[in-house]
Design goal:
This protein is an alpha+beta fold and 410 residues long. The chain is 22% helix and 34% strand.
């Protein structure tokens, strides 16, 4: 890995890296940010490359120099440590790489960023906020609830003919009950798995379909699916990998139906009809539209008045009317499930809605941001809020204050 990383960093610094090499470099840095090999390669770069900017820590020095090589774009001043260094506004791939490296070094307490030459702190912290994690509440058919993050691994409940099992990785699985405990005459029971703000969870449904829930989301489902259809309800955001299920007698595929609901009002927002596929639904109450993005297979989105058949890589957008986006940014759509914030050409309020859900914080805006430049950046979700805001400051220049469970943007 060391030789590959060194090769890519030097290609990056020399501006000869291909788009594929830039992407590979960012992946290596993010996946190996705590590896001693990374530090060794960076120290070697420091020794071999001339340094043009003075910074307070040599670890940041070489890598940031490679990322912030001069170009013809406007300069944004950023202070590292107690000194101020001119850093230029960058294209997406530069900002993304900067985010990876800055998080790598801030995790060790080596870098502190300011916004202007007067060393005014870009991110003021009164109480930092830890990232979200595997948190969810399981509501059983009788209305009782189980806080899953407090439960030990193993069987947490039995509903009808199904055992509810919490695995070591935090996943919830529905397994067929043992013959001795199964009740053939038991009515179909419905469960609801819901995540709070700052929570996420994944579940394997009784048919083998897998579902990942983002923060402030829910899925309601039967503990045993029937032979004619498999129907669930969701609010918020969920990613599905639907298992293909065929009836034994007729040899027909059993359709999978997802009813999309408004979390606050319970109002129907549409339905996704599936045979077997991978797709993402974003239906938060505070978003302007319901978006269903297809990654694999084929689905039909059924709205109030019309419907759309989606091919892989397409997105149904339902607001006042139903439209199709034939080239959505799938990386941005799936970023949450892959453990990152990823934005290209996004406005600050779109970004902060995701940040608010993941860190369970309120966002207060002290000025209008309608005419601000769009944001391009990527950063892991597994880091404290202050680190995300520092990278966000680098990408856009706004100032942030963390005060208790509130972000003040100005």
């Amino acid at each position: 890995m060391a030789s590959k990383l060194e090769y890519l960093l030097n290609r990056y610094a020399d501006k000869t890296a291909t788009p594929g090499e830039k992407e590979e470099l960012m992946r290596l840095l993010q996946e190996n940010s705590n590896d001693e090999t990374v530090q060794h390669v960076i120290d070697k770069m420091i020794a071999e490359r001339p340094v043009t900017h003075e910074m307070s820590e040599k670890t940041a020095q070489a890598v940031l120099q490679a990322i912030f090589e001069a170009d013809e774009t406007p300069v944004v001043p950023i202070a590292i440590g107690m000194e101020t260094t001119p850093v230029r506004r960058m294209l997406y791939w530069r900002i993304a790489a900067a985010a990876v490296v800055l998080l790598m070094v801030t995790a060790a307490g080596l870098v502190w960023m300011n916004y202007n030459s007067k060393t005014q702190v870009a991110v003021k912290i009164k109480n930092d906020v830890a990232p979200g994690g595997n948190k969810a509440i399981l509501t059983l058919a009788d209305g009782s609830t189980i806080v899953l993050d407090n439960e030990k691994n193993g069987v947490v409940a039995q509903e009808g003919n199904a055992k509810v099992v919490k695995l070591k990785n935090g996943q919830l699985v529905y397994a067929k009950a043992d013959d001795g405990s199964a009740d053939a005459n038991a009515p179909v029971a419905y469960n609801t798995l819901s995540t709070p703000k700052g929570g996420q969870y994944n579940i394997e449904l009784p048919d083998g379909s897998k579902v990942w829930l983002n923060a402030a989301s829910s899925i309601t489902y039967p503990t045993t699916f029937g032979a004619k259809e498999r129907k669930v309800q969701v609010t918020g955001e969920a990613y599905f990998e639907v298992a293909k299920l065929v009836t034994v007698k007729e040899g027909k595929r059993v359709p999978f139906l997802v009813d999309i609901k408004n979390k606050t009002t319970g109002k129907d927002l549409g339905q996704v009809q599936v045979l077997g596929t991978h797709f993402n639904i974003n239906a938060y109450d505070d978003e302007a539209a319901v978006k269903t993005t297809l990654l694999e297979g084929k689905v039909k989105f059924v709205g109030k008045a019309d419907s759309l058949l989606l091919a892989p890589g397409e997105q149904a957008v339902a607001s006042n009317k139903l439209t199709i986006n034939q080239s959505p940014d799938v990386n941005q759509v799936m970023a949450w499930k892959n453990g990152v914030f990823h934005f290209e050409n996004a406005d600050i309020k779109t970004v902060m809605r995701q940040v608010s859900r993941w860190y369970d914080v309120e966002v207060v805006y002290k000025r209008s941001f309608d005419n601000d430049d769009p944001l391009f950046f990527e950063v892991t979700r597994n880091t404290n809020l202050s680190d995300v805001l520092r990278v966000l400051n680098l990408a856009g220049g706004a100032k942030y204050t963390i005060q208790d469970k509130k972000i003040i943007v100005q």
